[in-house]
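Contributing: when you submit paired examples, paste them exactly as shown. First protein:
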Amino acid sequence: MPIIIICSGLKLYGYVFFLFFCIPYLIINKKKIYTSIINAKDIEKVVLIYFIFLLIETLYGSYFIKDLKIIIFWIPLII
């Protein structure tokens, strides 16, 4: 969180910049993340499905509008 705040304060896209730090973490801990999704409660799985839906809609919207900036901002924000 401090990296996001600092990057946003420097007029950089904090969420996008933070994603570069988040991707290695996700790759390293993918087995833990997968098991936590499997062991999640039903309501948590519904929320996860909703966020996946938002990601798909973001991709569709950026393709329809043909604007890459939508993906650059919204995908890291949702993740």
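Second protein:
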Amino acid sequence: MLQSCAVALVVALSGQACAPTPDASDTTAASAAPTGDTIRIARSISEDLAGDGRPERLTLDARGPTIDSLRVRLEIRSPEDSLLLASSWASEFYFQYVDRAEMTEAAADSTVRKHINAVLTDSAFRNGVAGTVSDTMLLSMMRDAIRYDVATHQWRTANSLAPGDELPPTAHEPINTLARAVPRSRIEALVTELRDRKTFTWFAGGEVTYVIAWSDREQRFVTVFSCC
């Protein structure tokens, strides 16, 4: 895998932040989950990630029968409501490095809600990634993440996958092959463009963290750091 681990960098990034909007909601009533999901946690926020003065809409929806089996989906939509990016994961990954069996239900509930609530908090949005670590380390990690992101986008486009569609497991090997052929000039152009752009970071459990930024050049969100 050509993706690089960047957990330490995610903590180190600095910049301007934005707080959740008042319409964020937290629903645990069964009536809010007609499919049998007894727990639902919903969050939303508006943030200008593209830098054009027109905020995108970010939503997070987590639902399921138990707190450790929630299906979590993050979406970013344009001001016109078109889907720009989507990411999904399971709340069980929040317990990857703890013994769930030894936790009370209250402790498990607190753990999941803490992580979910952190996705759209002020610290998730930062201005610029340059200058927080040594240039050599920073640029190497950015290049690896961008190379794999470009290859993934190429594969998704060739296979007509929409932004909200998940990659099948069979995609990883051809994406790795494509990544080895991404022109260095394209990678360098994106590094130059994105190193000072506003970023959005989220944690999906275990060691999985993503940092993205909007690219005018690509007209889409590009992953500038990822782990693992």
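If you have annotations for the second protein, write them as plain sentences, like these:
The first strand starts at residue 25 and ends at 27.
The two ends are 9 Å apart (CA to CA).
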